[in-house]
Amino acid sequence: MDQARWLLAHAKNAKDDDLQRWQAVVAPLLQVADWETWLRLSRDDFKEHAAAAGGWKPWLRRCIEGEDWAGNPHYHGIVVPLPGDGVEALGRATCQLVEGFLAQGKYVYAFDPDDADKIYKVLGVELLPGNSWVAFAKLVLEEE
Question: Is the pLDDT of residue 85 over 70?
């Protein structure tokens, strides 16, 4: 069976309980007929591959463009939680991942962490004024 490989990009300070819940709830929403869904936390991928990749920027490229030995992409797409809990924007790191996946023509979706029964197609990002690492951009979502 083919495997649809997804990266769940999240804030560095996301709680373990939230991440586990998001994985359990979001993975079925990404299911495609005749494909196994595999959803990996960006934190886990970073811990496993960033040092060997050569740091932050090469790790980003690995996630976005990387392939395994057979030529299959490391990730077919990315899914991100919509900002919430008083946070109105994506951090710079998550924004860089989203932009990279969009530029490669890969799947990019968002979900509401408080009501994760639906995913939303991401069309782009809108950069915010200033240079804050934690409030860097807003997602542009497809109209329902």
Answer: no
